[in-house]
Structure formats: structure tokens, C-alpha cells
Amino acid sequence: MSQKTAPGEALRASPGGGNAVTSGGRRGAPDGRRRLDRQTVAAWVLVLPFVVLFLAFTAGPVLGSFGMSFTDIRQRDLRTPFSVDGVGFGNYVKALSDETFRKAAFNTAYFVVLGVPLTLVVALAAAVLLDRGVKRFQALFKVGYYLPVVTSIVAIAVIWRFVLSPDNGLVNTVLGWVGIHGPNWLASKTWAMPSLIAMAVWRNFGSAMIIFLAGLQGIPETVEEAGQIDGAGPWQRFRYLIVPLLRPTILFTSVTTGIGYLQFFEEPFVMTQGGPLDSTLSVSMYTYNQFGFGNYGLATSMAYILFVVIAVITFIQFRLLREK
To answer: Residue 4 has what DSSP assignment?
Structure first.
């Protein structure tokens, strides 16, 4: 005698199984979705303050300033910002054809081309000396080298103005001991920019030195031991073993230092005010001056030209210094 099967059991026992839904499955899926929804809501609640602040104070101003660069907006138009006229790429053309802007761009390139390699070389040399030569009081030297990085630029400017004073400055006094009459460093078109570069290297190499020191201490000692066994001298081991292993560290320090030097502003603003005769005027300082003059459209176009230059140079650094 055949036994009758309940309709629900027949459905669950059907060979296709595509329509079979257990009671546990009906309860489990909504529970999982509710748990996921609660996690999503909690995550958005936590990130919402950042999102609001980012949109209000970062993304909004960036997009607004980018739009301003295509208009003729000036200080007098702030009360009626929607009554300004569009000028297309006119501000960019005006900036690139401005003789003073080109002079500022040349000064910035001069500062970067000399300042970045000098900073990295001094930082790497200091890191090697601390890692290999100085074993006692190493922490004291680290603090001493890093101290200018966190020191106020105003305090640094006072010190360097005294050091570079033409009459009784430390540099000219030492030069006078050997019969050399030193120039007026900060008032000379020839020596003002090298003076700012020297100050920038002294002020910033401590940051790169700490990073290089961490990279050196992360290299196993067996690497140098293997090179020594193969007969490589100290310079050969450093050139062909240590430097290639420091490539990621060199990339990071060169990118961060290069970006900072391309935007250099504090040194000429505090020390020379861009003089003498615009010989230390930087792109950032000239852009700042245009904002002060109320030329907002022109100033924002200069800022975005500098942004594009920074992006291109950073891309080139990544291509040249990436790990192979």
C-alpha cells in the first residue's frame, strides 16, 4: 500500500530542488540582511562627520576654486559671485604669459633642482653616519638633527638673518678671518637664492634623515657580509647593495621633499619678501600676492598650474625610482 505524502513534504523532496525552501532558510536570510544593514548604518554614522567635513572644507572649495579659474572673478565680485563672466582658459594664458610668473617659475625650478638633491644627499650621509659610525648618544643626534624641522620658521629666520648679516654675521666673520670679504647674502641677486636653499636644506634634512635611518636599519647585516665575502669594498657595497635596497625609501623621500620644495613659500616670505628684484619670488608666493590683490581667477589658475606641475614631476619620480 502506498503512503500519502503531504504537499509540503513533496515540495521539499522534489528532484529539482529549485523551489525547495526550508523554514530555517526563510528565517536565516532576513536575519543576515538585517545584521548587514545594521553594520552598514553604524559604519555610515561613524564616517559621516568626516564625509561632511571633507565635502564642506575640501571637495567643495577645490571644485569652487577650479571653477573660479575659468572666470574673471575679483574681490569686488564676492557679493555677487554668480554675476561674473567666464573667460575660458584666459586666466591660464595670462598667467603663462606673465613675465613675473615665469620668473617665479624659474626661481622655483632653481630651488627644487638644487635643494632636493642636496637635502637627500645630506640626509643620507647623516643617516649612514648615525647607523654605522655613531653608536653612543645616537638619540641625542637624532633629536638635534630633527629639531629644525619642528622649529618655527620665524625663529629660524631670526637665526639665519644673524648668521648671514653682512656686517657682523657669523659667515662673513669667518670669511674675514681668511681675508675674504663676504657679500650681503640676502640682498644679493646672486647669493639670495643659494642662501635660502642652504637654510631649507638645514631645516628639512632631519626629516629625510630619520626615514633613511629607518630604511638602513631594515637592511639585514647578511647583505653586507655577503658583499664583503665576495671582495667588495665599502663604497662598492654601499653603491651596489645598500642603495638599490633603499630605492623605496629614496622614492618616498624624494617625492615628499620635492612636493614641499615646489610649494616653497615660507623661506622667501619671511627672509627676503621675494627680493631682491624678484630673484627669490616663488610661484606659491606670487600666487599668494595675486590673492592679496583680489585677482582670484588669475590666482586660482596659477595654483592649478602648480598642481599640474607637481603631479607630472611626481609621476616621473615614480617611473624613475620604482622598484624593478
So the answer is: P
Give the 3-state secondary structure of 248-306: HHHHHHHHHHHHHHHCCCHHHHHHCCCCCCCCCCCHHHHHHHHHHHCCHHHHHHHHHHH
Rounded to whole angstroms, what are the CA distances from 21 to 14, 24, 32, 35, 98? 11, 8, 16, 21, 75
For 188, 267, 283, 298, the CA distances from 75, given in Å and listed in that order, are 35, 27, 21, 12
Distance, in Å, from the CA atom of 46 to the CA atom of 209, rounded to the nearest integer, reads 37
| pLDDT of the residue at 12 | 46
Kindly report the CA angle at 306 between 302 and 310, in degrees rounded to 5? 170
How is 40-83 classified by DSSP, letter by letter?
Answer: HHHHHHHHHHHHHHHIIIIIHHHHHHHHHTTB---GGGSSSGGG
State the sign of the Cα–Cα–Cα–Cα dihedral 269, 271, 273, 279.
Answer: negative
For residue range 35-94, list pLDDT tens digits in order: 778 888 888 889 999 999 999 999 998 998 899 999 988 888 777 777 888 889 999 999
| pTM for this model (two decimals) | 0.82
Give the CA-trace dihedral at 147, 150, 155, 160, to 10 degrees.
Answer: 60
The DSSP output letter for 2 is: P
* Contact (CB, 8 A) for 114 and 197: yes
Give me the mean pLDDT over the 286-301 stretch. Answer: 92
pLDDT digits (tens, 9 = 90+) for 241-287: 888 899 999 999 999 999 999 999 988 998 999 989 999 999 999 99
Nearest to 211 by CA among 265, 248, 237, 161: 248
